[in-house]
Automatic annotation (TrEMBL):
The keyword Oxidoreductase applies. It comes from the Bacteria. It comes from Ferrimonas aestuarii. This is NAD-dependent malic enzyme. The record marks 267 as: Important for activity. (S)-malate binds at residues 154, 415, 459.
Length: 562
């Protein structure tokens, strides 16, 4: 806060200052500033406060009826006046998060070229591969601490969106700022434009990306390598978040870079951390432990397997052996239950197969074991959906689960809303209100017989802003498994249901900044005990986190001498 009160010395004036989104204050420039920065006559007479500006902006926002129009409107404010944008979003976080983030951001990626207005972030296209250093040098942000990078190949559950994938890094970084207090000046979204295999994009005359099939194999690996080396040269201490890469690349990229730089994959590790945190809260509220649960997954991709491994690690920390923990986790994908001897499993899937001796009598006529057969035989107490395929938690699946388990925990996590495995109201109806439901996209509370059931949004947005804040506060050089586990436990401690026995499984979004600070604290402590933090031990960590937390308030400007 103190930081915010000091004047800022800036070298721009006139229209350029009004066009610089990080510095623009619009009608809030004071009389002295208008004179000092040659703004007289460029702005309406009235000098407004940020509250007055936010009131007008909210009225304009409210006049739009479609979520896409609202998204375009907010993005425009973000591109012209970032301070006002974050003030507005922070004041209306529950209403606006679904507009700047999931689910609307999915549509914004699909329609990226139709709604395009202004440049934001960096677009690194394959034909420019020999000029990556120059391009990074063109960034309008110089002091970058957090980058979210995607190649647009697996955008939420919507598949390949090519350059349109840029909507995701922009949206994620908006949450780093509004939920995690990271100054927008420190953030940079990057899209790797390596072509697209989506015919809808390739054949769209409006498409703004490199109109080419995706590159792959060695060409792709080499390109990513060149980009990451250039990022390391330009910003050696940056936190790099991999986002929405296709399965074939997500895990290999993480494996390749996790010990070389400060990075994580949000879809694998962020989703895992929020899911484990939510499960810990659910167990705590029921007076049990995670190690007592039996868990079935629909979706055995890198996200599902990432969550499964984090659950296993937690069960082991609660006292199970690795083998006992793995025995309790059932991974089902489109070919059925992952079992020993199955062909074509990826390395991370092989570690999660079930023993065939146990499961051979469960098999259906085709020899495979379906989700329903897993439900009826393994009798799971937890069901997690990360399949990207809507509707697969059928009435029969949920009712069968409920037959074996009085209070099932059901998390249909696929995003956006159109991809959800089952709608919360259906799950609650099929289980007579007994299920504990959390989803990846936001859902309104479900009303059944005058009882209101809040639906927690088990989305990585509860985790990554706090991780970023913690990493910056303690100057972490790596992201370790202990840091991720610490984030899950810190989140569970913020659960109203776990702490009080009633209310929602996860805290309301209005409290997300406080939640992020608690997560940041736990993450930084874990980084320090793992020896990956540069911060010296006797510095007050809470104070450092508070000092790093950026608030959307205008600062006083003074002119530098040129
Ligand atoms: O962005 C979200 O809402 C969650 C996420 O990372 C994904 O689905 O890829
Ligand atoms: Mg993602």
């Amino acid at each position: 806060m103190e930081e915010n009160k000091r004047p800022l010395y800036i070298p721009y004036a006139g229209p350029i200052l009004l066009e610089t989104s990080l510095l623009n204050k619009g009608s809030a420039f004071s009389e002295e500033e208008r004179t000092a920065f040659n703004l007289d006559g460029l702005l309406p007479h009235a000098i407004e406060t940020i509250e007055e500006q936010a009131e007008r902006a909210y009225k304009q926002f409210s006049h739009f009826s479609s979520d896409m129009d609202k998204h375009v409107y907010l993005r425009n404010i973000q591109d012209t006046n970032e301070t006002l944008f974050y003030r507005l979003v922070n004041d209306h976080i529950t209403e606006m998060m679904p507009i700047i983030y999931t689910p609307t951001v999915g549509q914004a990626c699909e329609q990226f070229s139709d709604i395009y207005r202004r440049a934001r972030g960096l677009m690194l296209s394959y034909p420019d591969r020999h000029r990556i250093d120059d391009i990074l040098n063109n960034s309008t942000r110089h002091n970058v601490h957090i980058i979210v990078i995607t190649d647009g190949e697996r955008i939420l559950g919507l598949g390949d969106q090519g350059i349109g994938g840029m909507g995701i890094p922009i949206g994620k970084l908006s949450l780093y700022t509004s939920c995690g207090g990271i100054s927008p000046a420190y953030t940079l979204p990057i899209v790797l434009d390596v072509g697209t295999d989506n015919p809808l994009r390739l054949n769209d005359p409006m498409y703004m990306g490199w109109r080419n099939k995706r590159i792959s194999g060695e060409e792709y690996d080499q390109f990513v390598d060149e980009v990451i080396s250039a990022i390391q040269r330009r910003w050696p201490n940056v936190l790099l978040q991999f986002e929405d890469f296709a399965q074939k690349n997500a895990m290999p990229l993480l494996e390749r870079y996790k010990d070389k730089l400060c990075c994580f994959n949000d879809d694998i590790q962020g989703t895992a951390a929020v899911t484990v945190g939510s499960l810990l809260a659910a167990c705590q509220s029921a007076g049990t432990e995670l190690k007592q649960q039996t868990i079935a997954f629909l979706g055995a991709g890198s996200a599902g397997c990432g969550i499964a491994e984090a659950i296993i690690a937690q069960m082991v920390s609660e006292g199970l052996s690795d083998e006992e923990a793995r025995d309790r986790v059932y991974m089902v994908d489109r070919w059925g239950l992952l079992q020993q001897g199955m062909q074509n499993l990826l390395p991370f899937q092989q570690k999660l197969v079930q023993n065939q001796q146990k499961t051979q009598s469960w098999a259906g006529e085709d020899g495979g074991v379906s989700l329903l057969e897993v439900i009826n035989n393994a009798k799971p107490s937890v069901l997690i959906g990360v399949s990207g395929a809507p509707g697969l938690f059928t009435e029969e699946v949920i009712r069968s689960m409920h037959q074996h388990c009085e209070k099932p925990i059901v998390f249909p996590l696929s995003n956006p809303t159109s991809r959800v495995e089952a709608r919360p109201e259906d799950i609650l109806r099929w289980t007579d209100g007994q299920a504990l439901v959390a989803t990846g996209s936001p859902f309104d509370p479900v009303e059944i017989d005058d009882v209101s059931y809040p639906i927690a949004q088990c989305n990585n947005s509860y985790i990554f802003p706090g991780i970023g804040l913690g990493v910056l506060a303690c100057q972490a050089e790596r992201i370790t498994d202990n840091m991720l586990m610490a984030s899950s436990r810190a989140l569970a401690q913020c659960s109203p249901l776990a702490e009080t026995g009633e209310g929602a499984l996860l805290p309301p979004l209005e409290e997300i900044q406080e939640v992020s600070k608690k997560i940041a604290f736990a993450v930084a402590r874990a980084a320090m005990s793992d020896g990956v933090a540069k911060m010296v031990k006797n510095v007050d960590l809470k104070q450092t986190i508070d000092a790093h937390f950026w608030h959307p308030e205008y600062r006083n400007y003074k002119r530098t001498s040129f």
